[in-house]
């Protein structure tokens, strides 16, 4: 889970540790050149971003731009915003942008009040005692992910309804990804988090834990113009998704159960497009006050529940 720490003058936030966190550009707003048949969701509509005020949005944009261009220090000391809120906005950026898989979970503020990021190349994480992340390796991983995302999105008919696109994304993930039980037990190797915890592990290596499933679903939805968000529970995360202006909850991880022999099957739809009331009978949202900064829509719609006989266009 994600956690905020205060150590002396260093504030650290642990991002995307959920057991269930100018180089090559990979993000929804910059991928129109390869996604000609689909219109990706605009950044201004990302769920956490939409709740920020103007100053907070400036901090958010600086963080996101710096991460995409491998700038480890983000100058925000000139902005009138408190230290705790700066780190909350880092969390908002990470929740909204699962494609930033190389940004490590430990973020700090320096003596000037600027935000300091750490990067991970899949083997080495900055300041972990094993050197600095190799940016060329991150570039290569981003390009590989971009190719995979392009192929997945290209297989989805642009004329399909939002529901049909969402269903295709959900089913692709459950059919091609295996839940990584070993990574759920041992998240770190030599100070570097296993890729099962991020979108790269799920979509490229076809292994994941809940944060990987959640990020992959969210990002693929972005790429076909569908808004999606993240819900945090106790050692678990899942998604909300907006279809035709109404919100639903979906748990892709739990729709890909692990068999008795340890393998994953083709998945099911038991937790697909539920109301909040239905999902909260199974999962409880975290009551940790830290998560107060993460907004979650109330989901009451039932039209596109998988249990309904949803008509196709």
What would you note in describing this structure?
The structure is a single chain. The protein is of the alpha+beta class and 313 residues long. It has two domains: 3-116, no CATH class; 140-293, C8orf32 fold. It is built from eight helices and twelve strands. α1 (54-68) packs across α2 and α4 runs antiparallel to α7 (210-223). The longest helix has 20 residues, at 135-154.
Short structural description:
With 313 residues, this protein is of the alpha+beta class. It is 29% helix and 14% strand. The protein is built from eight helices and twelve strands.
* Beta strand %: 5-15%
The global form is globular
Unreliably modeled segments? 1-18, 21-34
What is the tally of helical segments?
A: 8
Record field, number of beta strands:
12
Give the CATH topology of the largest domain: C8orf32 fold
Q: How would you spell out the order of helices and strands?
A: EEHEHEEHHEHEEHEHEEEH
Tell me the name of the CATH class of the largest domain.
Answer: Alpha Beta
| Number of separate structural domains | 2
Mean pLDDT: 87
Q: What's the alpha carbon Rg, rounded to whole Å?
A: 19 Å
């Amino acid at each position: 889970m994600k956690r905020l720490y205060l150590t002396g003058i260093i504030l650290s936030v642990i991002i995307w540790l959920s057991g269930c966190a100018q180089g090559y550009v990979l993000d929804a707003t910059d991928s129109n050149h390869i996604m000609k048949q689909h219109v990706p969701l605009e950044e201004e509509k990302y769920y956490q971003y939409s709740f920020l005020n103007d100053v907070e949005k400036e901090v958010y944009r600086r963080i996101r731009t710096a991460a995409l261009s491998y700038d480890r220090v983000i100058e925000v000391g000139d902005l009138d915003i408190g230290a705790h809120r700066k780190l909350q906005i880092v969390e908002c950026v990470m929740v909204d942008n699962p494609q930033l898989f190389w940004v490590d979970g430990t973020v700090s503020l320096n003596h000037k009040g600027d935000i300091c990021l750490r990067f991970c190349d899949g083997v080495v994480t900055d300041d972990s005692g094993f050197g600095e992340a190799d940016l060329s390796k991150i570039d290569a991983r981003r390009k590989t992910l971009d190719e995979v995302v392009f192929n997945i999105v290209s297989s989805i008919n642009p004329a399909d309804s939002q529901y049909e696109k969402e269903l295709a994304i959900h089913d692709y993930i459950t059919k091609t990804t295996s839940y990584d039980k070993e990574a759920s037990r041992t998240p770190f190797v030599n100070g570097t988090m296993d890729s099962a915890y991020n979108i790269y592990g799920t979509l490229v290596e076809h292994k994941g834990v809940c944060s990987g499933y959640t990020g992959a679903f969210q990002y693929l939805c972005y790429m076909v113009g569908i808004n999606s968000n993240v819900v945090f529970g106790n050692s678990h995360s899942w998604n909300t998704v907006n279809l035709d202006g109404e919100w639903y909850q979906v748990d892709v991880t739990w729709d890909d159960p692990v068999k008795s022999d340890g393998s994953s099957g083709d998945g099911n739809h038991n937790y697909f497009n539920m109301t909040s009331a239905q999902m909260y009978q199974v999962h409880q949202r975290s009551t940790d006050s830290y998560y107060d900064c993460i907004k979650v829509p109330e989901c009451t719609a039932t039209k596109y529940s998988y249990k309904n006989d949803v008509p196709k266009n």
